[in-house]
């Protein structure tokens, strides 16, 4: 088997890259270890920056996102029993759309299929070879057969647990990591929205987030012990915790609904440099992870793909190598900005068990500042919508 660009992983990064390359006349093959049903049903992110929406629309997969996604012009910060609004559109001229990641995946898979794209599911034993030569390859098992995909470039879009990152020699890599001592308990429930906009709540019991999926399905999260078991949380206990953390002194309450999905995710910040070696390039969670508080993970994966698409186009159309050579440095500027923002949001909003009463007061002081100073609110809003200067 031969193609121009071999892509490992059919997450948002791999699928979008493959489709954008196709639109530029560049061939690719996407290899995915899970089934189509699995990738189309995994519940993850929900917030899309304007730049992400623009690139999805440019790729011709924006119609359902525009019709079914909800445009949000602001969000609320809840703390000390009150709620204060961050008006994203007023402060930045931009907004965000709430549209589930697995719906983005469905749209991208459908577009790849319709275009006759090569997308192999349920591959196993993926390994990368010859990245220091001009003829790299990917070996894998598919349908019980040993296969080899020869290509000009290998793009590792295989998420945080994939094989690509480890294919860059350890001596050339420097990893930066911070693991947080808490996780998020996430639920999906049937019922009406509790609020017109997302609510990020800081409470002495811990952080909580009220998000949405549609008029009838809601998404909520609350800070928990990352080793907590879903089985310990009855629906009643979950609602009691969300009410305690989010309901405001003036009577605004979270609306209970029928919970049909529960999951717990750990939280960490991670950046692997370099994101390229020879003919191997990493994009998305394969190279970096952010805690979900800033809603940046999916958006960063898409931003990497934008840079990489332009670099591969410059190579194939103009025979230029400079954009490919500069990929890691270019992408890392935005990545470090988002890493800082996600870390900052996480530290400001979560219950920090190692924080002294003094540091806890600093969290409140910072929330007062970002909700009363237009300059501070603008900085937060620019980061949230993804237009902060780098
Ligand atoms: P992934 O989506 O992880 O895709 C990688 C793919 O590669 C997977 O399908 C995997 O099966 C496949 N794969 C792995 N190994 C192999 C292999 N060896 N061979 C072949 N295939 C392989 N981000 C936001 O922007 N906004 C949010 O609101 C947000 N909220 C989040 C909430 C939660 C609870 C979580 C968990 C994440 C959230 N994120 C959010 C982060 C976001 O989901 C990820 O950053 C995003 O999925 C990264 O996309 P990706 O394509 O890089 O990787
Ligand atoms: C959602 C997830 C996030 O991490 C976030 O910051 C906001 C919303 C969501 O899944 O809706």
TrEMBL record:
InterPro entries: FAD-bd (IPR002938), FAD/NAD-bd_sf (IPR036188), RIFMO-like (IPR050641)
Keywords for this protein: FAD, Flavoprotein, Monooxygenase, Oxidoreductase
Residue intervals of the FAD-binding domain: 2-341
GO molecular function: FAD binding; oxidoreductase activity, acting on paired donors, with incorporation or reduction of molecular oxygen, NAD(P)H as one donor, and incorporation of one atom of oxygen
TM spans (from-to): none
Keyword Repeat: no
Pfam family, one: FAD_binding_3
Superkingdom field: Bacteria
Record keyword Flavoprotein present: yes
Record protein name field: p-hydroxybenzoate 3-monooxygenase
Classification of source organism: Bacteria, Pseudomonadati, Pseudomonadota, Betaproteobacteria, Burkholderiales
